[in-house]
Specification:
This protein is about 30% helix and about 20% strand. The chain has about 300 residues and is of the alpha+beta class. The strands form 3 sheets. A 4-stranded antiparallel beta sheet has the order 3-4-2-5. Strands 6-1-9 form a 3-stranded antiparallel beta sheet, with no helix packed on it. A two-stranded antiparallel sheet has the order 7-8. The protein is globular, with a radius of gyration of 23 Å. The two termini are about 25 Å apart.
């Protein structure tokens, strides 16, 4: 009898928060490594000119200390990492049936499902949304930064929505473009319960998205030159089945979905999709519900 996948996290009273250092992303995107080195050389030259000789290197040492000490503390285990960056040791997988009310109250280590076979997959929707700025200021262009602030506000609105609003938000991941030294491009990967939830949120008049879209269209009409330098895009996928596998990774993607689940006593708790990659979830076919004897890869 195969070992059934088990839950790694129990009930939560609220959806966990996520860290996102927007300023760090902007600086990393705008300045290349050569640019940062050049900036450091100029800063050191200015310090040599304005600061007495024994203290010339103090500013540089302070910058190095500010960036290296947190890393050293993390390596020594003396600084607590944010939960969403904490490594989950071992082989784990995403279980898309995690939000079944039967799972409410299950503790870490409890079987994700009773039957040896995987239950029917739970459909979901995936939205990729991103933007890019071609102006000379790049990510520092005020209108472009404002768009980033709006997207962050959208995620905050979705993450903080009470269960009774049924916004359908499951998770989000933030990525920056890495194909060139300064891409000025970013992407948000957002997981939803359905396409209908995406459409409803996008057209919610008193939400963050609809007014922002109107403002972007106004920019295209009234400041066409700048408007043509700020691009936005999105893609939506209506997904009927999927798998996620992770080795020694923090919770992420399909493995970091959270949804509100009603309990037998009338409460609402939040459940997570990450389970151990054991039993039927030890193989790709098992995670996708494809019989091992089939000819499919």
């Amino acid at each position: 009898m195969p070992v059934t996948p088990t839950f790694l996290f129990g009930d939560r009273t609220a959806r966990p928060s996520k860290t996102c250092n927007s300023l760090q992303h902007i600086l990393r995107d705008v300045f290349t490594a050569q640019g940062l080195i050049g900036f450091g050389i100029c800063l050191q030259a200015l310090c040599s000119y304005f600061i007495p000789q024994p203290y010339t290197f103090a500013p540089g040492l302070l910058i190095v200390a500010a960036s290296s000490i947190p890393t050293l503390l993390n390596a020594l285990g003396l600084r607590r990492q944010p939960e969403d960056t904490t490594i989950v040791v071992g082989k784990t997988a995403a279980y898309l049936g995690f939000a079944n009310p039967d799972n409410a109250g299950k503790q870490p280590g409890s079987p994700a499902f009773v039957d040896a076979e995987k239950p029917a997959p739970q459909p979901f929707a995936l939205m990729l949304i991103g933007s890019r700025c071609f102006s000379k200021l790049g990510s520092l262009q005020p209108e472009f930064k404002e768009m980033g602030d709006v997207i962050n506000a959208m995620i905050d609105e979705l993450r903080a929505a009470p269960p009774e609003h049924d916004v359908g938000f499951l998770n989000s991941e933030y990525y920056t473009h890495g194909a060139q030294p300064s891409g000025n491009s970013n992407m948000m990967c957002i997981y939803w319960k359905s396409y209908e939830h995406i459409h409803r949120f996008a057209h919610k008049v008193n939400g963050d998205h609809y007014p922002a879209w109107q403002k972007y269209m106004t920019l295209q009409r009234e400041r066409s030159k700048l408007g043509s330098q700020i691009g936005i895009w999105h893609e939506i996928f209506d997904v009927s089945n999927a798998e996620g596998i992770y080795w020694h990774m923090p919770r992420m993607g399909l493995g970091d979905l959270w949804d509100a689940v009603p309990t037998a006593d009338g409460r609402v708790v939040y459940r997570n999709s990450l389970v151990t990659g054991t039993g039927t979830y030890a193989s790709s076919k098992g995670r996708m519900g494809v019989p091992e004897s089939s000819g499919k890869a």
